[in-house]
Please model this.
Amino acid sequence: RHDKDGSSFIQTVADVFTKKKGPVLELLTEVTRRMAEAELVQEGRVRKVNPEIMSTLRKRLYLQ
Amino acid sequence: MEAEIQPQPLEEETYDMSGARLALTLCVTEEREGSEADLDALERMFRQLRFENTTKENPTGQQFLEEMRTFQETLDGWAEPVSCAFVVLMAHGDEGLLKGVDEEMVELDSLFAALNNKNCAALRGKPKLFMVQACRGEHRDLGEAIGGDQVAVMEQEHPQTIPTFTDTVHVYATMEGHIAY
Model:
C-alpha cells in the first residue's frame, strides 16, 4: 500500500471497473495484467504482486 | 470415417442486473496508511456502477461478522428485487483470516458464508462479488525475468519481470473441503 495513493489492487480495480466495459472476469484479467506489469519497490528491491481470481459464476456478469 | 465436429459459439447468458445493487465496504484504516485513498476510489467506482454502498471503518473482528449479518438482513429485507452484492474487505490479514482493529482474527469463510445461496435468499442464484485487500502470508515475490534468456534480458536497459504466479487457471472438481463425485 502506498502511504498516499492507496493499494495497487484497489486502485487498479477501481480504475478498470470505471473506465473499461466487459464481463467482470475479463475486467479482472485486465487488472491482473496491469498489476503483473507493475514493479513495486520495497526496501530497495523490486517486488511483484498479482491477484488470484477464483470464480463460480454461472453466467457473464456485466456491471456497467 | 468420423465426421469432423464443428464447435458452436458459447451462449451469451448474462445475469439480470435490472434490480437493486448493494455494496458493503469494511475497512480497517488504523495503521493502514493509504486506506483513505482506497475508500475514495471505491466510493467513486460504486457511484458510477450504481451500487448503493455502505462503508464501515475500523470494525473489530466480531464487528466484521456482525456487519456481514446485518448486510444479509438488509438484502433479504430489501423492498425491490436485488440483482447483485459487492463486498470489499480491507484489513491486515493472513491466509484465510482478516484482523479486526482489536487484533482479533476472523475467518474469511465465515464472512463469505453470510451471503451464500443457503443463507441469503435475496441473492440466491445471483452474483456476489467479494474483494479482499489483505495479506495472505509473509512471502514476497521477487518475480522472474521474462523470456528465460537471462543474458539477453540483462542487456536490456529496463529489464522486465513477471510475477511468479500468473498465467494459470485453477480449476477444481469441487469446492475446498467437499467431495467430488
